[in-house]
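Chapter summary example.
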Amino acid sequence: MTDTQNIKKIIVEIRAGAGGDEASLFAGDLARMYQKYCAKRNWSFSVLDASESGARGYKTLVAEAKGEGVYDALKQESGVHRVQRVPVTERQGRIHTSTASVAVLPIVEAKEVQIKDSDLEVTFSRAGGPGGQNVNKVESAVRITHKPTGIVVSCREERTQHANREKAMEVLRAKLFEIQREQAVGSVDQIRREQIGTADRSEKIRTYNFPEDRITDHRIGKKFSNIEKVLEGDMDKIVQAFQS
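The structure predicted for these 244 residues follows.
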């Protein structure tokens, strides 16, 4: 799969890093930014699983995005994102620094990643949240553990066990494919560190500095203004900077 332009389905995984509640809020900001950008491009963006933290924050969020050129546009988002701003709960006006990590993985066909049923531990539970009474009464949420690697994936978006299992398997295949592509021989934790770092404040690909209204991408050395507009999904300048 060297022609990335042909990859039309991806997994977007966002995790709050250093910074406590503010990191969770920032993870939520990034999730909404990608969702709104996908909407602008007429791509779909559906949340497969999420661990919420407060009204607008996420500890973790896993979503699927589909559309022509989606991987080519968003693959550069993988890494640690850092935000510098005054949290709404900060009474003394001090600027806090927080992080969130993003992983963007291509969804691959089943034939590209061989997974043995004996290597899987599958459990079911009730899926909370929206979806009507059926979601809460039936154990439709799926959690899959890949025993050889320790990778755990889950999905609660769909209304049936079967559909959620299929979605969870897509996420698992994407993660295993990424490991194979990197030809890594270490642990799964090592694989994740290679892609997104440890989510420490010092390991960052991009900084969102609210007091100075400036976004800096540290890999290409370019700066962008109007943070609020970017977080509303206006990511074109950033995406084009990587494609030029």
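To summarize the output: Confidence is low (pLDDT under 50) at residues 129-136.
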